[in-house]
Write a structure and sequence with these properties.
single chain, 314 residues, alpha/beta, Rossmann fold, 2 domains, four-stranded parallel sheet, 8 strands, globular, disordered N terminus
């Protein structure tokens, strides 16, 4: 079982952010959460507002909410490590004032959970993707690559925003259904990778592609102690590092799945080893790359890169 790496929230940042949330709560947000969270859009007759902890979930929200919605992503730096993000008072204000908030959950963006925990109204309007995963025994937190979870989030977005602004319900439902259909199509194409290349094995520098590889029917044979060390931001054991390097050098695996957002000397060395052995490297990121705003486009391009790397039809 992978060890969940927690997002960092400094003591000062936490106190400031939570104090701001408490201030908001003192003006009416301290009531117990209801089944239908209150809507700032409905109250003001303004634009629907969505806050997502990362631009991946922000892109999912935008696809469903539509072009007129105001969607804000807190974490969007393509070069940064989301696990190390430090929240700000502005993040707390955005979360408490939005119509809905989308968090990944599973300890990935714990700062958002702390902000919501301080304000029952904010907590009531938060959609937590990790809680919607179908396999509750699977503790891998990188659920934005799980088709079923992503569709569940999309449908929750449509339902919650329809509660906030009923006149938008038809359009929200239509966009969610179209999004779901495209997710299903990409999932079928992903499953075709393993079907065409049975027995394919890969090594991963970090288990962020867990659900993508599972959908593809591709085995991740990275040693568990290596995975846990990387997740905990510690040095892998010498034995596990030798095992991974030997697998690449001897071409016991078809590809290296590489996360450039958590590049350390150890994982950079593995990329060099793979390149020297002519083992394809597949970059899989945790946020959308610069210039990319469409979730479906991003997932499909990642699927295509994996298929090409292992010799499957793209």
């Amino acid at each position: 079982m992978p060890v969940v790496r927690r997002a960092v929230l400094t003591a000062g940042g936490a106190l400031t952010a939570l104090a701001l949330v408490a201030g908001c709560g003192s003006s009416g947000n301290s009531a117990a959460p209801s089944a239908a969270p209150s809507s700032s859009a409905a109250a003001s007759g303004g634009t629907l507002t969505v806050v997502a902890t990362t631009n991946v979930w922000g892109a999912v929200a935008k696809a469903v909410a539509g072009p007129d919605a105001d969607v804000k992503a807190i974490i969007s730096d393509p070069a940064g490590d989301p696990h190390s993000y430090e929240s700000t008072p502005a993040d707390a204000a955005a979360i408490t004032s939005s119509d809905i908030t989308i968090a990944n959950g599973g300890g990935y963006d714990e700062f958002a959970e702390k902000i919501a925990d301080a304000d029952p109204a904010a907590k009531a309007k938060m959609i937590t993707a990790f809680d919607l995963r179908p396999d509750k025994a699977d503790d891998n937190e990188h659920v934005w690559f799980d088709p079923t979870t992503v569709k569940a989030v999309a449908n929750q977005i449509a339902q919650r925003l329809a509660q906030a602004e009923p006149t938008e319900a038809a359009g929200l439902t239509q966009r969610a259904q179209a999004f779901d259909a495209r997710v299903d199509q990409i999932a079928q194409q992903t499953a075709a990778i393993g079907a065409s290349r049975p027995g394919t094995r890969v090594i991963s520098t970090e288990p962020i592609a867990h659900y993508l590889l599972r959908t593809a029917g591709v085995a991740d044979v990275t040693p568990q102690d290596f995975v846990e060390a990387i997740e905990n931001e510690t040095d892998p054991s010498a034995a596990s590092l030798v095992e991974v390097r030997n697998a690449l050098t001897a071409k016991q695996v078809t590809a290296l799945v590489f996360n450039p957002q958590t590049e350390t000397p150890v994982v950079a060395g593995l990329r060099d080893t793979a390149n020297a052995a002519q083992v394809p490297v597949v970059e899989v990121t945790e946020t959308l790359p610069a210039g990319v705003t469409d979730y479906l486009q991003w997932v499909d391009s990642t699927r295509t890169a994996l298929a090409r790397a292992v010799g499957a039809p793209a």
